[in-house]
Structures are given as structure tokens and as C-alpha cells.
Design goal:
Strand content: 15-25%
Number of strands: 12
CATH architecture of the largest domain: 2-Layer Sandwich
Order of helices and strands: HHEEEEEHHHHEHHEEHEEHHEE
Helix content: 40-55%
Distance between the termini: 30 Å
Number of helices: 11
Shape: rod-shaped
Oligomer: single chain
């Protein structure tokens, strides 16, 4: 998940928690405040009732020791006075309860004031009730309104936070895109500073630029070293080889000396091959090749197969070419040839006598997959992971292997953004899978 979405989500969750807490507090406080105000009104009505005990209507009912009940047309309030056999003990005692009452055949929940008073030497109990159904309706309305406001607030919060964080982090993503993701060649690094007022991003930009200066210097030194190695090592080796060959042409050499010279020439050829392989890997990794050719994979596979005809015949190995798709990609012609040559060469080298090599392909949308499967000695599962390491000689019994073939394959595939996978079982063969994505 991107940083801006994490920030927006964090802000949204934080505000959600605050809104939920505030909403719950409002609902809880609403009931207490409402009951408090109803209680004040009920006390006021009690005071008014006591002050009107001498009124003609109430006075006559109380003198006759009858109950007095009064309620309005919509029984939202009622007053109930009941005579007692004795005087009321404490006229100042007041209690409040919430109970169901049936008034005019309609049962509702009331907030009730319970008290009493004495009048003309008699005691009376007093109930004054006010319905709280309106409060419940109000709470439901507030709940719905709170939920609606919560959804609106969350939506606005997410939208605003996404816009704000996108604006805030725009320099950060520009730094990543311009100075990290798209940097394939240190020599063409963009040192122009990203416009930002955030001090942290300025420090990051400056740090990356400073690091790239160091990398560029090292890159330049490595190129110089490669050129020097190519001249200082390969040239003397060629000179020594020529001198040894000249010595071989001289008469009078003993067989023992000839064998020693042949062994020396073989060692020099091996050294020359290793140096050339290392130089090739270094040049590939330093982007010293271009990709200005249009390579047809099917044609190249066919061309390589024809080149291996004599070798296939000597080892009694058969190649089954099942490549059907015409896949053309921008690439370096010589490197792609080396890539396929090395893979097919390994399939021949490590195959059993009378074995087979099957080359097949699949094309789905913009993904092309080339598979090269042999019936050879296979690779142990533990060795597959280190198969692409330089000078890693696998347990194949091949004495002439330098351990650089697959390292070159790895460098070329990385240079062309090709994925390479190996599936193998010991003594059951190996499958090399080359995956070309979006390169047609």
C-alpha cells in the first residue's frame, strides 16, 4: 500500500474514532440532559399544583377524598392524586422513575415524579408524568443524523486527505520516479533538484544526488578498468600463445616438451576464455551495449540449431523444434544469440546419449514464453538457487566448465528485462523458461 493511502487511512480511522466517541457521548448526554429538564418541569408543575390546591375543582375532589386525574388531549402528561389513610410523612421527598402507564387505553413510557402532600388534615400521594416517547424519537433521529454525518465526514475526510497527501508527497514520488526507478545508467542521471518546500525531501534529494555522484565515479573507473584489462591481459596472452606456437614448429622438440607446450596453450586458451566471459558480463552490467536490433526468436533458434548439427550428431542428441510463434523484440543481436546459444549448448552438454531437447513456445497477449527442455542429468534442487553465480560449478561431472555460462545468461536476461526460471530434477532433465513480458 502506498504511503499516501496509509496516511489517508490512518487519518480516516482516527477521525472515525473521534466521531464515534463524540456521537456516543452526545447520545448518552442527551438522555441525561433531557431527563434533567423533564424533572425540572415536573417539579415546577408540582409547585403549581400545590399552589392551586385551594381552587374550586381540586378542592372539592380532595374534600370528597376522591382521586384526581388530569391529562391533556394527547396524553403526553398526566397528574394523579390519590388520598392516603394517613398524613404524608415528608412533603419535600421527591423521586423520579421511568415506567409504563396506561392513559386513556394507551400505554406509553413516562418519566414520573412521585411525591405527596397533606391538605386539610389528610395525606395524598402525587404522581406527575410526562411521556418520553418524543425523546426516543429524537434519539432515533439523532442516531440517523449522526450516522449520515459520519458517512459524509468519512467520505470528505478520505477525499481531502488523499488530495492533501498526494500534494504533500508529490515531490517524494517525483524523487522515486526520476532518481530511482528510471535510473538505468548512472552517466545519464538527472541531478536537477525536485521543487519542494519540505526539508526532509530536500535532504533525500541531495543524498541521492550525492550517492549517484560517487556511483558515477566508480562506474567510470570500472569502465576504464575493463578497457585496461582487455588490453593489458588479453594482449600478453595472445603474444605468449603465438610464441608457444612458434616453438612447436621448431624441429628437435622432445615429445615431453611438446606435451608441456600443448598443456600451456590449453591453459592460456582457458584463461583467455574466462577473461572474455568476465569482460562480457561486466560490459553487459554496465550497459555498454545497445538494443537497436529487431530479433526474431524463432529464426534465431533455428539458426542456432543448424550450427549445432555436427555436435548433435556426435552426441546422438535430437532437437525437437516446436517453436510456432513469430515473436520479434528490440534487443542486442549478439547478446540474444549468446543467450540462446548458451542455454541450448548446456542442454546438449549435460544431456544423455540418445537424449532429446524440446524447444517450445507460447504467446498470450503481451507475454511470450520460450521453454528449452532436455532429458539430461538435471540439477539438484539445492543447486538451482546458486546456478547463476559466477564460477559456480554444479555437480555435473563436466571438467571443462568454467562456471560462467549461466552467469552470462543471467546478465543478458537482466539487460533485456527477461525473466528466467529453472525447473529440474536430478537425472530427469532440466527446463529453462525464458519469459518475455510486454516486449513485442
Amino acid at each position: 500500500m502506498k504511503l499516501q493511502f496509509k496516511l489517508a487511512l490512518y487519518n480516516a480511522l482516527t477521525k472515525l474514532a473521534i466521531i464515534l466517541f463524540t456521537g456516543a457521548l452526545i447520545l448518552f448526554s442527551l438522555e441525561r440532559i433531557t431527563f434533567h429538564h423533564i424533572g425540572l418541569r415536573l417539579l415546577q408543575k408540582k409547585a403549581e399544583l400545590i399552589s392551586h390546591l385551594s381552587s374550586k375543582e381540586i378542592s372539592q375532589i380532595l374534600i370528597q377524598e376522591k382521586s384526581f386525574i388530569d391529562y391533556n388531549i394527547l396524553p403526553e402528561e398526566y397528574i394523579d392524586i390519590e388520598p392516603l389513610k394517613t398524613l404524608y410523612n415528608n412533603e419535600k421527598e421527591v423521586t423520579f422513575t421511568t415506567e409504563l402507564r396506561t392513559i386513556d387505553k394507551k400505554t406509553e413510557t413516562y418519566r414520573i415524579l412521585k411525591s405527596g402532600f397533606n391538605y386539610t388534615g389528610r395525606g395524598y400521594s402525587l404522581e406527575i408524568g410526562e411521556t418520553i416517547n418524543g425523546i426516543d424519537e429524537l434519539k432515533s433521529t439523532i442516531k440517523g443524523f449522526t450516522l449520515l454525518m459520519l458517512l459524509i465526514a468519512l467520505s470528505l475526510t478520505l477525499l481531502i486527505d488523499l488530495i492533501f497527501t498526494r500534494y504533500l508527497l508529490r515531490p517524494f514520488y517525483q524523487i522515486i520516479d526520476r532518481k530511482l526507478v528510471k535510473v538505468n545508467d548512472p552517466m545519464n542521471f538527472d541531478y536537477e533538484k525536485v521543487s519542494t518546500s519540505t526539508q526532509d525531501f530536500k535532504m533525500l534529494d541531495d543524498s541521492i544526488s550525492s550517492l549517484m555522484i560517487k556511483i558515477t565515479n566508480l562506474f567510470t573507473l570500472e569502465k576504464q578498468f575493463i578497457a585496461n584489462v582487455s588490453h593489458e591481459l588479453l594482449t600478453p596472452i595472445s603474444i605468449i600463445s603465438s610464441r608457444l606456437e612458434n616453438i612447436l614448429q621448431q624441429e628437435g622438440l622432445s615429445e615431453e616438451n611438446e606435451n608441456k607446450i600443448f598443456a600451456s596453450l590449453k591453459s592460456l586458451d582457458r584463461l583467455k576464455s574466462i577473461i572474455k566471459s568476465l569482460l562480457l558480463i561486466s560490459q553487459i552490467e554496465n550497459n555498454q551495449f545497445n538494443k537497436n536490433a529487431r530479433v526474431n526468436i524463432a529464426d534465431m533458434v533455428k539458426e542456432i540449431n543448424e550450427e549445432f548439427e555436427d555436435r548433435l550428431e556426435d552426441k546422438k542428441v535430437t532437437i525437437i523444434n516446436q517453436v510456432k510463434n513469430s515473436f520479434i523484440m528490440p534487443a542486442n543481436l549478439s547478446l540474444m544469440y549468446t543467450l540462446l546459444y548458451n542455454v541450448i549448448n548446456n542442454a546438449i552438454k549435460y544431456n544423455h546419449k540418445h537424449g532429446t531437447i524440446t524447444i517450445s513456445d507460447t504467446l498470450k497477449e503481451d507475454t511470450y514464453i520460450l521453454e528449452i527442455t532436455d532429458t539430461g542429468i538435471g540439477i539438484d534442487q539445492k543447486e538451482i538457487e546458486k546456478a547463476f553465480n559466477r564460477f559456480e560449478k554444479l555437480d555435473t561431472g563436466e571438467k571443462e566448465s568454467y562456471g560462467l555460462g549461466l552467469a552470462i545468461v543471467k546478465s543478458i536476461t537482466a539487460f533485456h528485462n527477461i525473466k528466467v526460471q529453472i525447473a529440474s530434477k536430478k537425472n530427469m532433465g532440466t527446463t529453462f523458461k525464458l519469459i518475455f513480458e510486454g516486449q513485442a
